[in-house]
Amino acid sequence: MSTTQGTHSLAFRVMRLCRPSFHVEAPLRVDASDLIVGEDIFDDPIAASRLPPLIDAHVTKLTDTSDLTYRTRFLLQHPSDSFGLTGLLVLPQAFGAIYLGETFCSYISINNSSNFEVRDVTIKAEIQTERQRILLLDTSKSPVESIRAGGRYDFIVEHDVKELGAHTLVCTAVYNDGDGDRKYLPQFFKFIVANPLSVRTKVRVVKETTYLEACIENHTKTNLYMDQVEFEPAQHWSANIVKADEHKSEKDSLSREIFKPPVLIRSGGGIHNYLYQLRSSSNGSAQSNILGKLQITWRTNLGEPGRLQTQQILGTPVTHKEIELCVMEVPSVINLDKPFSVHLNLKNHTERELGPFEVWLSQNDSLDEKAVMINGLQTMELPQLKAFGANDFHLNLIATKLGVQKITGITVFDKSEKKTHVPLPDLEIFVDLD
């Protein structure tokens, strides 16, 4: 764990500071009824009904305070006894695992094991990773005046762990020994930082709305309580978390707003999924495929905090239409060779005025093959649309064939920009006899 050069009066001792753990008793406890009767007693309803008074009387005798034999120490006195938790805490017995996002806290003691006093002690403590070297303590401007023979100097350092992999705590001391020589003492303490959880994301686009699914898996040996899992959207994006419907009373809803219970992700592979609905606040095509990043904070069983931030999450840029043509209503009954009207809506998704427009049915098929045609003028004129405006209109059609038919090729043409927009997807209708 450490290396020194030559003979030194001083030596570093390092202890990690962390919270204690619960003490769990291994012995198995039993129910008092198991010591008196067998499980077949429940086959007889009368006998089973007389069991509780019998058990209470027997346990009362066993729990006599004057009895010092502790015969009842393996009996379940309370349902919580079955968990094996005694209410006692145990101090850490080893250096333990260190995880990304935690705060590494170390108690360092520099001991003088010689028979003489050392003076003018300059102490440095640094964390060295593959990428950087971080100074935690430096007493160069105010050295420790002296450390007596057999004495020590103690200090605490903290470091927010933000990198995975090998870390080295480098402790150095420069001091004057009993002979007046200036000596340099370096010691190195190595440890590995592991990943406490993994975050897997999936991006889906449904009807121009982007959904982000985040799956968080716990890789530690302790339960993690998620205080916060929030998605910070990139510029021009907004995000809302999607939750299942919960039918709670108004009192419960108010209390949940004041105190939000953490989400438990169990140790050794427990997972929890989060779903976010993302919307672009800019019109037109997205300029970047960066959606944003997740901010995650948690606590362990005894409240030790942790915090992680993911890298930028990427998605496929969503192309928004300048003009959107939507079907509002189609008649439920359509008769052969009888005119009918389709209710349509034309929306302007830009910040500028567009139009005027022409609407028609594309003539890809011959008139003999076309099952649905415009009834009247083949081209319909529509006025200009203001920025973010909309216009409802009706397109008069007539069906010339029976059965399931398709209305195909409803097309919008912008007369001012001389631009033809993508036709409306095919609409299926059923044509019947009058």
From TrEMBL:
Annotated signal peptide: none
Pfam families: TRAPPC13_C (PF23643), TRAPPC13_M (PF23647), TRAPPC13_N (PF06159)
Trafficking protein particle complex subunit 13 C-terminal domain boundaries: 331-421
Residue runs in coiled coils: none
Annotated ranges, domain Trafficking protein particle complex subunit 13 middle: 197-312
Domain Trafficking protein particle complex subunit 13 N-terminal, first and last residues per copy: 8-193
Family: Belongs to the TRAPPC13 family.
The protein, known as: Trafficking protein particle complex subunit 13
